[in-house]
Design a protein that fits this description.
The strands form 2 sheets. The protein has a 5-stranded parallel beta sheet with strand order 7-6-5-8-9, covered by helices on one side. A 4-stranded parallel beta sheet has the order 2-1-3-4, with helices on both faces. The protein has 12 helices and 9 strands. By secondary structure, the chain is an alpha/beta fold. Helix 4 links the parallel strand 3 and strand 4. The chain has 2 domains: about 150 residues, Aspartate/ornithine carbamoyltransferase (Rossmann fold); about 150 residues, Aspartate/ornithine carbamoyltransferase (Rossmann fold, 3-Layer(aba) Sandwich). Helix 1 packs across helix 11, helix 2 packs across helix 11 and helix 5 crosses helix 6. It starts with 11 loop residues before the first helix and ends in a 5-residue tail after the last helix. One of its GO terms (cellular component) is cytosol.
Length: about 325
């Protein structure tokens, strides 16, 4: 794997290999006081973020450091971007400075793909950490890892993705990945928050949340992305919550085993009730924990290994020798 730009086109073997590597890395680090593996010693990972982030940026930084990589954080607001430097020149500068991998978040859809093209001859890998409303592949991978952990597998499982699908790169990446891994996806949203052409996606579309909840194994609530909205997509926050918020009453409609997910940040009281977000059925904190291990696995496959067997052997060897960095 040279780059991770999206989950569209990611085959089941590659996706499963990354998830299996994440599981092995998680087991390797479990209970260890010093969480450090020497796997990426001598490698340099640069996070290049043109949009705000907490979970994604921090988890990539921790993932790199736990694998002994040198991690450099670059934000657009404090770089030469503020002086007018183009994305291409910034990328070439980072590659020339020795970056082995650039993790990029950008407001323009397709930015990560352009970056990968510009760096094709430099040997630098690119990870898409979210590009506009296009994709967010590592979020989908950590969601899949969490569902595998909670449900034991994804084949035949029914997952509802609820809310602002129109502006959600998380929803797009999850549709591609979950269906590839054998799950059935139902999108639940008002018509104004569904993208044009959604009928061609391999999903079921519904506008009635209450009707869908009793038959799902998991429900993923999406953040309402007000910063990307220019116009009235729903009458009010209160009316949105009444129709599409996951309240405590709606939680009771779910099967007992069903899992509640949210990519964060959450708008508590609108998208999801606090009592639901903090309930035992919610795996929101687990998503964050799994995000570190999934991003470790992604960096491993990009910079150190080509298959799960290699990763498992490396992690096992490190565990046997205490994992000293």
């Amino acid at each position: 794997m040279r780059h991770l730009l999206g989950t569209e086109g990611l085959d089941v073997d590659t996706a499963t290999a990354v998830l299996d590597t994440a599981d092995e890395l998680k087991r390797t680090l479990l209970g260890r006081e010093v969480r450090k593996l020497p796997t990426l010693r001598g490698r340099t990972v640069v996070t290049l973020f043109y949009e705000n982030s907490t979970r994604t940026r921090v988890s990539f930084e921790i993932a790199g450091k736990w694998m002994s990589a040198d991690v450099v954080n670059v934000s657009a607001s404090s770089s030469s971007v503020g002086k007018g430097e183009s994305l291409r020149d910034t990328a070439l500068t980072l590659a020339a400075a020795g970056a082995d991998c650039v993790v990029v978040r950008h407001p323009a859809s397709g930015a990560a793909h352009r970056l990968a093209c510009w760096l094709e001859d430099n040997g630098t890998s690119v990870v898409n950490a979210g590009d506009g409303t296009h994709e967010h592949p590592t979020q989908a991978l950590l969601d899949a890892a969490t569902l595998r952990e909670r449900l034991g597998g994804l084949t035949g499982r029914r997952v509802a993705i609820v809310g602002d699908v129109l502006h959600s790169r998380v929803a797009r990446s999850n549709v591609h990945l979950l269906t590839t891994l054998g799950a059935e996806v139902v999108l639940v949203a008002p018509p104004t928050l569904l993208p044009v052409g959604v009928g061609e996606w391999p999903v079921t579309v519904s506008h009635q949340l209450d009707a869908e909840l009793p038959a799902v194994d998991a429900v993923m609530m999406l953040r309402v992305q007000a910063e990307r909205m220019h116009g009235g997509f729903f009458p009010s926050a209160r009316e949105y919550s009444i129709s599409y918020g996951l309240s405590q009453a709606r939680q009771r409609l779910l099967p007992e085993h069903a899992v509640v997910l949210h990519p964060g940040p959450m708008l508590r009281g609108m998208e999801i009730a606090s009592s639901v977000a903090d309930a035992a059925s919610a795996a929101i904190t687990e998503q964050v924990r799994n995000g570190v291990h999934v991003r470790m696995a992604v960096l491993y496959h990009l910079l150190a290994g080509d298959n799960t067997a290699d990763a498992a052997d490396a992690a096992t060897a490190q565990r046997a020798h205490g994992g000293e960095a």
